[in-house]
Amino acid sequence: HSFPTRRSSDLEYEYATTLGIQVASVPLIVPIAWYSMAIPTLMLARSLSQRPLIVLFFATIGLTAWDFLLDPWMVGEGHWTWVNPEPSLPGLDGIPITNFIGWIIRP
Q1: Separation of alpha carbons 58 and 28, rounded Å
Q2: Could you read off the pLDDT of 37-77 as tens digits, one per residue?
Q3: Strand order in 80-82's β-sheet?
Q4: pTM for this prediction
Q5: Chain centroid, CA 102 distance in Å
Q6: C-alpha of 29 from chain center
Q7: Choice between 92 and 33, residue whose per-residue pLDDT is larger
Q8: Which residues pair with 12 in a beta bridge?
Q9: Which of 4, 15, 20, 102 has the highest CB neighbour number within 10 Å of its CB?
Q10: Residue 5 contacts by C-beta under 8 Å, 6 or more apart in sequence?
């Protein structure tokens, strides 16, 4: 596997080549997957409230919850790895806790 390094603020992770075609070192499926989750998450958040901050809150919680499911699965399957995975949450080895914190404080 080839692992090009990506930076997300001060977090580094590497994608394997197992997810198919890559554009700018990012598997094409990654932005497609996020878009396919962002739209229904936004629609659900907007169905709960029309107030922008409340919509942002629910959308942030929804996408963070998806990441809680997605990251352990993808790391476990070897599709990506974190360069510095510690400290991590109990039961979520290989994924830094700052990844999830970042989803909440910087949606």
Answers
A1: 27
A2: 999 999 999 999 999 999 999 999 999 899 888 888 999 99
A3: 5-8, 11-15, 80-82
A4: 0.74
A5: 10
A6: 13
A7: 33
A8: 7
A9: 15
A10: 12, 13, 14, 25, 83
Q: Which amino acid is it at 102? A: G
Q: What's the full length of the chain, in residues?
A: 107
Tens-place pLDDT, residues 2-12: 344 444 444 58
Q: Apex CA 56: angle with CA 55 and CA 61, to 5°? A: 100
Q: How many CB atoms lie within 10 A of CB 37?
A: 15
**How does pLDDT run across 74-100, given as a tens digit for each residue?**
999 999 888 888 888 888 888 888 887
Contacts of residue 19, Cβ cutoff 8 Å, sequence gap at least 6: 27, 29, 30, 79
- In this structure, the number of other CB atoms found within 10 A of the CB of residue 95 comes to 23
Place of tokens 């070897």: 78
